[in-house]
Amino acid sequence: MSAVRIETALLIWALAWGVAPAGAEGVPEPAGYKLDDYRSAVPDTLAGAAVVDTARAKALWEAGETVLVDVFPRAPKPANLPEGTLWIDKARATIPGAVWLPNTGYGVSPLGMDAYLAAGLEAATGGDTGAPVLFFCQINCWMSWNAAKRAMTELGYEAVYWYPDGLDGWAFEELPLEKIQPWAP
User: Fold this and answer.
1) What's the rounded Cα separation, in Å, for the pair 22 and 2?
2) Would you state the pLDDT for residue 137?
3) What's the pLDDT at 162?
4) Average pLDDT over residues 37-53
5) What percent of the chain has pLDDT over 70?
6) Would residue 8 count as lying in a domain?
7) Do the domain assignments include residue 106?
8) What is the 3-state secondary structure (H, E, C) of the chain?
9) Terminal Cα distance for the chain, rounded
10) What is the tally of structural domains in the chain?
11) pLDDT grade, residue 25 (50/70/90)?
12) Which of 8, 115, 137, 141, by CA, is between 20 and 30 Å from 70?
């Protein structure tokens, strides 16, 4: 099947299920963070950040000077597992070289997540808030928008990129992926 036919089929599927393309026109930026309905149409912009498409994300990745941050959420280990139960964290397929900082894109951060985001970014950038950082998740996912905004407004990062098509856009172009585990301090 040709790339055009695949793209057309995906667009028809998305429209049938009521999924708007990333950066759907008319979606305004909230004044603060997006607090709910994280898998919905996202705005075209993020004030203070450069919004990039897959071609630009790939170019930044290939140049090797930008920290890529995947903020896709991860289910926590259940607190009520019977003693002796083996829990194996699920790896995530993501852009090679990306750091995975799960659960850092909620509008209201779960306890400890702000410190986890700050520590993860500090480790990935060597503490340089001027280092370029690209945030992504999936298409129509506000998690990356929130995390990128938080990095700028609360942590002082100055060279922030937001990739709204995220891993879906990357995989659609059949770009390489690697399995990783979440960053650990």
Assistant:
1) 22
2) 97
3) 99
4) 97
5) 86
6) no
7) yes
8) CCHHHHHHHHHHHHHHCCCCCCCCCCCCCCCCCCCCCCCCCCCCCCCCCEECCHHHHHHHHHHCCCEEEECCCCCCCCCCCCCCCCCCCCCEEECCCCEECCCCCCCCCCCCHHHHHHHHHHHHHCCCCCCCEEEECCCCCHHHHHHHHHHHHCCCCCCEEEECCHHHHHHHCCCCCEEECCCCC
9) 44
10) 1
11) low
12) 8
Q: Considering the domain boundaries, does residue 109 fall inside one?
A: yes
Residue with tokens 């089929």: 9
Q: How many CA atoms lie within 13 A of 61 on its CB side?
A: 25
- 111: domain CATH number is 3.40.250.10
- What distance in Å separates the CA atoms of residue 53 and residue 56, rounded to the nearest whole number? 5
Do the beta carbons of residue 150 and residue 38 sit within 8 Å?
A: no
Name the band, by pLDDT with cuts 50, 70 and 90, for residue 22. low
Q: Measuring CA to CA, which residue among 91, 120, 92, 93 is closest to residue 104?
A: 120
* Mean residue pLDDT across the chain: 89
Domain that holds residue 169: 21-75+91-180
Give me the amino acid identity at 65: E
Give the pTM. Answer: 0.84
Question: Residue 88: CB partners within 8 Å, gap ≥ 6?
Answer: none
Q: Dig out the tokens for 34 from the structure.
A: 């997006």
